[in-house]
Every structure is written in structure tokens, then in C-alpha cells.
Design goal:
Two copies of one chain form a homodimer.
Chain A (H helix, E strand, L loop, with lengths): L5 E8 L2 E8 L2 E5 L1 E3 L12 H6 L5 E3 L1 H6 L3 H6 L3 H5 L5 E3 L3 H5 L5 E3 L4 E4 L6 E4 L1 H11 L3 E3 L8 E2 L2 E2 L2 H24 L5 E6 L5 H14 L3 E4 L8 H11 L9 E3 L5 H9 L4 E3 L2 H7 L2 E4 L2 E4 L19 H5 L2 H9 L3 H27 L3 H14 L2
Parallel strand pairs in A: 4-16, 5-6, 6-10, 10-13, 13-14, 14-15, 15-16
Antiparallel strand pairs in A: 1-2, 2-3, 7-8, 8-9, 11-12, 17-18
Helix pairs in contact in A: 6-7, 7-8, 11-14, 13-14, 14-15
EC number (chains A, B): 2.4.2.29
Catalytic activity (chains A, B): 7-aminomethyl-7-carbaguanine + guanosine(34) in tRNA = 7-aminomethyl-7-carbaguanosine(34) in tRNA + guanine
Pfam family, one (chains A, B): TGT
Amino acid sequence: MINNLNFEIISKDGIARNGLLHLNHGTIKTPAFMPVGTGGCVKAILKRDLEENGAQIILGNTLHLWMRPGMDIIQSHKGLHNFIQWQKPILTDSGGFQVFSLKELCKITEEGVKFASPINGSKLFLTPEKSIQIQSILNSDIVMIFDECTPYQIGSHIITMEEACDSMKLSLRWSKRSMDEFKRQENKNFIFGIVQGGFYENLREESINGLLDIGFNGYAIGGLSVGEPKEYLHQILEFISPKIPDNFPKYLMGVGTPEDIVNAVYNGVDMFDCVMPTRNARNGWLFTRYGNIKIKNSKYKNDLNNLDPTCDCYTCINFTRSYLHHLQITKEINASMLNTIHNLHFYLNMMNEIRESIHERKFDIWKKNFLEDRSSNI
Amino acid sequence: MINNLNFEIISKDGIARNGLLHLNHGTIKTPAFMPVGTGGCVKAILKRDLEENGAQIILGNTLHLWMRPGMDIIQSHKGLHNFIQWQKPILTDSGGFQVFSLKELCKITEEGVKFASPINGSKLFLTPEKSIQIQSILNSDIVMIFDECTPYQIGSHIITMEEACDSMKLSLRWSKRSMDEFKRQENKNFIFGIVQGGFYENLREESINGLLDIGFNGYAIGGLSVGEPKEYLHQILEFISPKIPDNFPKYLMGVGTPEDIVNAVYNGVDMFDCVMPTRNARNGWLFTRYGNIKIKNSKYKNDLNNLDPTCDCYTCINFTRSYLHHLQITKEINASMLNTIHNLHFYLNMMNEIRESIHERKFDIWKKNFLEDRSSNI
């Protein structure tokens, strides 16, 4: 037996919905965006600023944390929350996505995945059981099953239906083993399954049905944003989201741009994670209401405007684009810090606006205005 | 005519003293430590955290700011305070120290210093007049005269008295030109002279007398911490500090360790700047009450203690040494951020304790305890 996840849907507008997800470290309002805290921190931002900007839950990466600091250190801190001093909910991925990104350096068998540590070359073996054991030690509020993230392309060819089918079926068997291990650990948190199947609708349907048979606390849509043409994301999302029963939280993994997120909420998705706001911040790529800004561009050298006239984050309240341009050009750590505050504020504030507009049954209008503003590129 | 600087000495304990230095952007309590904000920011810390940790005044580097962003940008922001959004006092160096650190890439004449920009190789010419013009545009609360920082060694030989004398006399002529330009600019801020003369007491004395004849608002001791044996610092400091009349602020440039600062306060010094707390932070070298810690050391891997048991900074209140070790090992920007908060807090809190102990006429006891604690290396 696993614990029952209390997910309340409190308002709806079309298929889009507002929910309350009650986890062991607190309740989060959905739709929610989860900043990515890879190896024990969200890069270039302090937890105080994360909280001030409205982060409710962050994501940790199992593979990174397993390799460094290692589970003995996490255990002596009694879990990831204490180690990183983030007492709100944490979701962890299973490590699968990261392992497979090593590509030729990893070998997949029925049992699991053998690979060489990118840190020190030591041989590691990750299995569904191992992944769940690690996530149990981390004490993640939401544990993700260990699966194979089906790629869009292998070498030069787009993955065939047969290949995608084999991959999806392996993932289903690993999902079952993940759930068995989760129960064996008597884990009191919650576990989500991940729908795979590539870009084949029949495989996606087989995947969700198999996962529903096992019976998870929530369902993620995986294997998107893996290099496919943009229209596939929309097509698969529109197909698969309604197949996940509405009483479960729906989580679209690794997505994406503000536009992708708005579109996914429109299709009933409740949870998101993406490195885009944080990684792009460090590269000087900034999200604003009126389009994206590459702050290194020389046209901002003497631009005395604030970054985003609609934004009230610490960065926008205090500094000119000219100053942010200067910090980026001179490669100051402070550029990454100020840009990260802004980009995360942009994403988290967007989620706020989404939730409010759904609550007021004005999501369609909000969505239209937001997308228009974004594409205006003032 | 230049404005009269209001520097009140409010209490004394031996030669050590507490003062109030009234500048155009606010009053600072001395003895004061000035965090270094080289190119428009104190690296890896937000101004909010600088203020929370008790920074009263920061230092900016004329040469860096002249090269980037350039004076047109600073002018359109109406000064450095607005550009970097630090509305408390700022002291700027004259650019001399940085130019001379380029060594063989710069050529000194009576008129000034020719050098190639380390950014783009373009030929630049810095003179006393130019330096003061730049600092006037920056609107620095305290402008430093342009001088030659006499080195301890040239090539393989320790600088001779003749060389040190020539250098000191050039600096005196440049000091006069700096003052003339400061007056020509009708600058409403304050200007400090810099005592040079290497490690020759007679030259140091000639230097301070020459500067006093010109008549500055305050006097800095330059040309120390330039690679000389430690005892020279103490010797020159003990010799020269009493030669600066007590009604002027005394500023020891570029110094130093906590122990150096405590010793200099004991010799009547009021102001300090040093990159040590910030630069060392980024390298994982942390100052604590009970000695210094290299956080990368594997003995901290599973150390569940806070960094400094006597410290109440954000870093020490929240995190274990184990976590800080992990961030440093994984080269996270967050390591630099948390370490910088702690090291600056350590320095600024030390200055607080110094001021309180002088006020209570217990500086000697405080100093003894502090130096004992520091050397205990628990």
C-alpha cells in the first residue's frame, strides 16, 4: 500500500484547473513551476530569494546527488531538505534522464543501466530499485519512477515505432519495479509514473494504461522536449493529457518556454520544471512580458530603462538594463545572480497570473493578452 | 578651496579611536572596513546583503570603471551611486595601483602613465588630471590622488633608497596636480593624499610633510602589502601613523588580514579596504573566530557543524560545513555567494566589535582575546 495523495481541484476554466497538492512538506498551489535545484541548490540564487519570488517546490536530481555529496552525507543530514535547508516540498527525478544523456557512455540491460561516472570515471549501476532507494534517503516529497526517456532520434534516424515500443515496454516494467521498491521502503511520500511512447499515440495510450494499472499518485508526461519539432509537443500533449484521469496531478517534464507552459495549462497540465529560466539567466537571456532580451546586445549598453516595466522583482526595481549589460559583459557572478532572480520571478509570477485567471474564469483572455504581449517584442 | 571634511573623534582607547566621518552620501563610523566593489559591484553579493551585514561604504576602482562601462554610461546615470544603486558612501582609488600592476605593459613619464588596455589592447593614458576627472564623474565621496605605488622589489633587487625617493617625489608632484584638478572641477566631495616612500622612514616623513603642505581632507598610507616581509608593515605603520595629525582620518590601503587590521587600529588607523574577504571567499577560504578554514578540505565533507559557532550571518545560521564543502567541490556559484556573505560578515562584525571595545575602553582586552581565539584553530 502507498499513501493516498490529496489533490484538490478548487476551480476550473475549460480544461485548465487550479489545484491544491498536499505534500508532506507543505501544500502547493497548481499550476506550479518547479525551479531546478540540480545538485543541492538552485544555481545562483539563495533560498530566501527563491521563497520571496514565490517558489513553492523545487526539483532535485537523483543522479547528481547520488554522485556528490553521496548518500552517506545526505543520510547524516537526515534527508535533502535539511542538507540544503529547504523545508518546502522537493520533487526528485529518477536519474534516468541524466544517465541517458551520457549516450554511448551508458549500457542498458533489463536489470538497469551501467555507466561511467562523469565525475571520476568510476563504474556505476543504476536500477529502478536503486533509484527509489536513493530518492527514499533524499526524502523527496514526490519520487519519480526510473524509466528510459525515449529519444526522438538515434544517430541519424528518427526512432521507429518498434524501437519506441520496446523502450516504452521496458519503462513499464521498470515502473512496476519502481513501485514495488517504493512499497518495500515503506516510503511515506508520493510516487509519480511517467508516460513514454515517443511520438506514437498508440504507444502513449498503452503507456498510460499500463501505469494506471500499477496505480501511481500522479502522472508525468516524459520524453517531450527531446529535440523534436515543436508541433509534436502540442500534438502528443493534446492527445495524452485527457487520457490521464482528471483527479490526478499531471506533470509535463522539462517543459519549457513561457508559451509552452501556458499552452500546456490550457491542456490541463498542473506541474512543470525546466532549467530554462535559471540556465538562460546565466547566459544573459532574459524573459520579459514583451519578449526575450539578450542583455549582452550592445543596444542595451546605455539603456536606462528597467529590464521589464511590468516586473517588480529585486532586479527590475533596482537596476537599469545598462547596468545588467555591464555586469554580463564583465562576466560578474552578480550578473548570474540578478538575472536568475528576474527570470525565476518571471516564471513564478506567470504561474501566479495563470492561477488567478483560472480562478476568475478569465484564462482565455489572460492567455491571449499574455501571448500577444510576449510576441510584441517592444 | 576644497570643502572641509567633518571628522569627529568620539572616543579613544590608547591611540585607537572611534570616529564619525560625515560624507555627502552619509556618515560612517570608524574604524571602518570598505568592501571592494571593483567594476561596479562587490563580487557575488547583492547590495541588500551588503547592507544587512553592516557595510557602510564600499570602494570602486577608477581604472576598471573607466575602461568598462566607460564614463559616458556613468554620466548618463549621473554617477556611480545610481549606476550600481548603492546610495551610501563610495571611495574610489585613483587607478594608479592597477596600472602599475600591469608592470612592463605601462610606461611612466612625468606627465602620466601610458598603457595598453587589458580588455582590448587600446592605448590609454592616465594622468593625475584624468584620474580626478574620472573620479569627479563617478561622484566618489572620497577621491584618492593619483600616485605611483612604490614597489618593494624591481626585478630581482629590493628597491633602493634613491629609487624610492624618485618615486615618492613624483607622487608628491602628482598629488599637487591631483589637488589642482580637484579644485578646478569644483568637486564638492573630499580628497585624500597618499603617503609613499617605500620602506625608508625618512622618505615616508618627507612624503607626509609634502602632502600636509598641500592640505588634503584625509591621509592614506600606501605602498604597503606589496610583497614585503610582514614586519615592515608594522614598522612603517608604527612610524608613520603618529606623523599624520590626529584630527584627520587615517586610511591604510589594501590591508589586510584580520590580525593586520586589529594591529593597525591599535596604531590609530581609521579606514581599511582589502579584497581578501571577497576573493578568498570565492576560493573557499573562510575566516572564523577560531582560525581560517579551507572548506574544500575533505575533513569538512561530513562536518555537521555550522561554519563559525560565534557567527550569526545567513550562511552560519542556515548551513553545515558539509553543505558548504559540497557547494565548493561542485563549483557552484552559490558557494561563492554563501562564502562571501560569511567572510564580509566576519570582517564587518569584527569592525563592530572593535568600535564597541574602543567605546568601552576595553580594546586591549578585546584584542588579546580576539587574537588568541583566532590562533587557537579549533
